[in-house]
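CO-FOLDING WORKSHEET

Operator: S.A.
Ligand of interest: zinc ion
Run index: 151
Mode: holo prediction, single chain
Checklist:
[x] sequence pasted
[x] SMILES validated
[ ] output reviewed
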Amino acid sequence: MTRGCEVCEALSGATSSIFETEHWTAVLSPEQGYLGSTFVGLKRHVSSLSELSDEEWAELHQVIKKFERAVRGAFGAQVFNWVCLMNNAFKAAEPKPHVHWRVRPRYDARVQVGEHVFADPNFAHHYDKHHTARVDEVVRSQIQSAIQACL
Ligand SMILES: [Zn+2]
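OUTPUT RECEIVED:
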């Protein structure tokens, strides 16, 4: 763990991951504008994709396959927008980027989870970072359980 790294702190404090592998942890995002949005972090503090080991890359491929299969099965996602941006780290005086992915599943239809209905109004276009939805712990837990049931 690297001191002052938000990703290291988030991963060490993650109480309920969707799943983890030897090198990666997948945690459901608090922000669920796009149903099933998830944070996938490398457990080791590495600052760029070019520093990943062959083993970490190979395992990432398995993580992607596992996640996409589960979310497609749980909610019928059509496509997945994976991004590894790390721009926020560079707002700090001493940037400490840490490799992680944010994945937004995308939908051509509305999906209901409990009482909450999720929509993807700009499907087939770039995701809208302002399309956000904070869900309570009950809905969050329902989303996580539905994904885990399809792992
Ligand atoms: Zn870190």
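REVIEW:
Residues 2, 5, 7-8, 45, 98 surround zinc ion (CB under 6 Å).
The chain has a mean pLDDT of 95.
[x] output reviewed
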